[in-house]
TrEMBL record:
This is Ribbon-helix-helix domain-containing protein. It holds the Pfam family RHH_4. It comes from the Bacteria. InterPro entries: RHH_dom, RHH_sf. Residues 2-62 form the Ribbon-helix-helix domain. Gene3D superfamilies: protein bp1543. It comes from Sphingobium nicotianae.
Length: 69
């Protein structure tokens, strides 16, 4: 995956890839664009977590904002 012009790899469990794909579709974005957005938010904090952790936390926070399915 390329984020901000840099190729990177991300290790996530299949359930998180699926959740990321669903959130990207809901926002009308390719999942790489959503990951880039999450990455930009991640690096803006004083002590940023690794990208995979940031994605998991972002998905969990987003799930809290949605009605249960």
């Amino acid at each position: 995956m390329t984020i901000a012009g840099h190729t990177t790899s991300i290790s996530l469990e299949p359930v998180f890839w699926r959740a990321l794909e669903l959130r990207a579709q809901a926002q009308g974005l390719p999942y790489s664009a959503l990951v880039a957005r999450i990455d930009a938010e991640r690096i803006a904090v004083a002590d940023p977590p690794n990208l995979a952790s940031a994605i998991r936390c972002w998905l969990l926070a987003e799930a809290g904002d949605s009605p249960p399915r």
